[in-house]
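Long-time lurker, finally posting.

We've been working with 4'-phosphopantetheinyl transferase superfamily protein (Chryseolinea lacunae) and I want a structural starting point before designing mutants. I don't trust myself to interpret raw outputs, so I'm hoping someone here can both generate the structure tokens and explain anything notable. Sequence follows.
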Amino acid sequence: MITAAIFDSRVYSELPRVQTLKEKLHPMLYPETEYAFENELLISLVSRLLLQRLLEKKGISIQKLHIHKGRYGKPLLTSSLEFSIAHAAGVAICLVSDEGAVGVDVELIRSIPVDEYKTSFTHDEWHLIQEDPTPQSFFNLWTRKESLLKLHGFGMQVPLRQVDVLHLTGSIYAEDIIYRGVFVRLDIEDYVCHACVPEKDSIPRIEIVAVEL
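Top reply, 14 upvotes:
Generated this for you. Predicted structure of 4'-phosphopantetheinyl transferase superfamily protein:
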């Protein structure tokens, strides 16, 4: 099963404090990135605390875990579980899977200079965006690309034009190999969010659970 937890800052009358989150979070899960703004640090800490809470729900001892990096820098747990986290503009999401690798990405639907991203899309993807030049259309494809790259542990080593996400099953063309994944959309109002899971006979169910920060 794949378990998900979502944090949406809009439902909170008062956001948690950074120091409080640091005190709750196991040091192993501290973000490595240096953030210039406190709100960016806060949402990063929240996403990792979601991971901690989901692991606790599965009865996993954080003290016995370690995080190491895969070939292209993807963080991996020293257990049979896989995880993926994403955050954007006050929303954070974490997925934990006992059915293999998983990837997730989330973006706030907003206006952007779409033409500047033409080289990030395949010919057919760009044609679709031109037919429907809305932020929704753009981020629908963008989050698919990011979630598929995360599924297979790639970062920006693969040009985005080599990531084809026009259909329900996406493909990465890299290293003379085709890496595939199946997309699952998660509904968050005003955002676009996609998970990506390995190609199997059936799409695994994603259970969204409530967790206390």
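Before you design anything, note these points.
The domain at 2-208 is CATH 3.90.470.20 (Ribosomal Protein L22; Chain A).
The longest strand covers residues 177-186.
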